[in-house]
């Protein structure tokens, strides 16, 4: 037993923890500045709420480290069922904000269940792929994997929440690829996805279509649907090499940039800390990615490797899409920047993912 504990501590990944905590701290500082109104010396309550969620995230991360991921995987289908129930519940009783039913009130706190679906889908896919092994080459098992990710994706699209639905689709693709799906099957699924875009377009809401059209033609409606991205580009560009300094960003402090504390938090950060600050932020994400790849490669079993791959896919996809979105190189889809954007459910989910990664790494040293 003592040897087991020693091996656990031997595998502790301090680099992953340090990168995560630095990102969370930078996120808190940026949420504070995006909540600060220049001239009025007033701060909106976003910072205090995000601080509470960060502390809860630390607790969730610790729990995820201490509980063996194989124990959680044993209950993967039950967890998956609970989150599906929450998604169905949302369709009938969810709180509608800006035309979307994504949130429920739980003990006075607003919670977004679709964020937790990322975790349950991650676990259920890892469990299923581990159970079937090489039978992933058989079409019937591939169809089951598609359904496991497709059902929550469909329910999330009904809310509607295009960004989270895309995360689940990419998560499925990444895990299937890592599990060794046949190239011909992968190519067929990719081709089917591309062919289905015109059908998918018909089911998009009006504002979602407008965002995609604004991406293709930014001058389509500069004072309407394109306004947010244009202001974001101005904020990022005006940061220059070293930025304007904390609480000194004109685009953010004078509220030219809408929803700056959520999906466009990177624009606030880049305006205040400039190109060098943005490079530092990206280096922290790259450090996290490098460590996560090592964890996936050295995991003691297939389940751990699949979980690590899934977490890499979730974090990398969200970071890439969010950063490209803020500079106008990707359509606005409502995907938050991990560890930085305001939002308790997302922060709690991301920090739990890091706890799972740390747990996989620590248990890779137990034989």
UniProtKB/TrEMBL annotation:
Superkingdom assignment: Bacteria
Pathway the protein acts in: Cell wall biogenesis; peptidoglycan biosynthesis
Keywords: Cell membrane, Cell shape, Cell wall biogenesis/degradation, Glycosyltransferase, Membrane, Peptidoglycan synthesis, Transferase, Transmembrane, Transmembrane helix
GO BP terms in the entry: cell division; cell wall organization; peptidoglycan biosynthetic process; regulation of cell shape
Subcellular location: Cell membrane; Membrane
Pfam families membership: FTSW_RODA_SPOVE
EC id: 2.4.99.28
Membrane topology: Multi-pass membrane protein
Catalytic activity: [GlcNAc-(1->4)-Mur2Ac(oyl-L-Ala-gamma-D-Glu-L-Lys-D-Ala-D-Ala)](n)-di-trans,octa-cis-undecaprenyl diphosphate + beta-D-GlcNAc-(1->4)-Mur2Ac(oyl-L-Ala-gamma-D-Glu-L-Lys-D-Ala-D-Ala)-di-trans,octa-cis-undecaprenyl diphosphate = [GlcNAc-(1->4)-Mur2Ac(oyl-L-Ala-gamma-D-Glu-L-Lys-D-Ala-D-Ala)](n+1)-di-trans,octa-cis-undecaprenyl diphosphate + di-trans,octa-cis-undecaprenyl diphosphate + H(+)
The keyword Protein biosynthesis belongs to this UniProt entry's keyword annotation: no
GO cellular component: cell division site; plasma membrane
Molecular function GO labels: lipid-linked peptidoglycan transporter activity; peptidoglycan glycosyltransferase activity
Coiled coil spans: none
UniProt signal peptide: none
Residues spanning the membrane: 12-31, 51-67, 74-92, 141-158, 164-181, 186-204, 273-293, 305-327, 339-360
Family annotation (NCBIfam families): rodA_shape
Family designation: Belongs to the SEDS family. MrdB/RodA subfamily.
PANTHER family: CELL CYCLE PROTEIN, PEPTIDOGLYCAN GLYCOSYLTRANSFERASE MRDB
Biological role: Peptidoglycan polymerase that is essential for cell wall elongation.
The protein's name: Peptidoglycan glycosyltransferase RodA
